[in-house]
Specification:
281 residues; 7 helices
């Protein structure tokens, strides 16, 4: 067992770090989602570069979107480490609170003849396996021909997520099942950034540097994954705070169904936000 004082310090530091990094990442994602929507709505009719004016903190800012940049800047700012560090801090927190904190299974899920150590390692294997297999299934789905029909692929993704929540609720404690669904969404989001969005942007940049034109199909795929991240963000935030409200979340008799319901609500809110951002100026 970990020393209680050490455990408390680790919990405090990791939770603080995870929340701060998550705020930075999700905030950046929300800002760029809003920018993309407004730039599209306010695009000039003459076909010129999409540009938007903003005011904040006593300053005026002009943001211009270039799909095919003619001149590359000396410094190009990338947004990537917030995703990586949020995921890393989350995995460390998952390890300290759940894998080392005895929260993976309920006492009712352990029979008199079970070896608690074996049960713990099995539950950890299920949790980590969910993250790996979940990414592989999600990524294969969205690079398959089914991705040509986003609504169908989205419906399948939701059903798979709900099935995962139900399955985890049968073999893990309600709280552990919830947090692993959140960890799965967080893993998908971070992997989207590092394995799909950034590589596409680097390929587009390399093409421009060589005097060619960027492949806009890469841009469309990157934007699609970025859009997925904006939708998963709200359910992840719900799961992060659900531990404070067990009666209506992981402690409910139909906890997996409650999670499915709140996930749908989060998606609806995100969709409404996107529609609002696309309103005429």
């Amino acid at each position: 067992m970990m020393d209680p004082k050490l455990s408390e310090w680790l919990n405090l530091i990791l939770r603080w770090s995870h929340v701060v990094l998550g705020v930075l990442w999700i905030g950046q994602t929300a800002l760029f989602s809003w920018l993309d929507s407004r730039l599209t709505v306010e695009a000039p009719e003459d076909g010129g570069p999409e540009k938007i004016w903003m005011v904040h903190s006593g300053g005026f800012y002009v943001v211009e979107k270039q799909k095919q940049p003619e001149i590359l800047p000396k410094t190009l700012h990338w947004f990537r480490w917030e995703a990586a560090l949020t995921w890393i801090s989350g995995m460390l927190l998952l390890t300290v609170v759940y894998y080392m904190g005895g929260l993976m299974v309920d006492e009712s899920q352990i029979s008199l003849w079970d070896d608690p150590t074996v049960v713990l390692w099995k539950s950890i294997g299920i949790g980590l396996g969910t993250l790996l297999i979940g990414w592989l299934v999600y990524d294969l789905l969205w690079i398959s021909p089914l991705a040509r029909s986003p609504r169908l692929a989205s419906a399948i993704s939701l059903l798979l997520a709900f099935g995962t929540a139900y399955g985890l609720a049968q073999v893990l404690s309600g709280r552990a099942a919830y947090i692993h669904v959140g960890a799965l969404f967080g893993t998908l989001m971070a992997a989207n950034v590092w394995l799909r969005i950034l590589p596409a942007q680097k390929q587009m940049l390399a093409a421009v540097q060589q005097g060619g034109a960027a492949d806009m199909t890469l841009a469309a795929r990157a934007k699609q994954r970025s859009g997925h991240n904006t939708f998963m963000a709200l359910p992840v935030i719900f799961i992060m705070i659900s531990s404070h409200f067990p009666t209506v979340s992981y402690g409910h008799r139909l906890n997996w169904l409650m999670l499915a319901g709140f996930t749908v609500v989060g998606f609806i809110v995100r969709y409404a936000m996107n529609r609002y951002n696309q309103r005429p100026a």
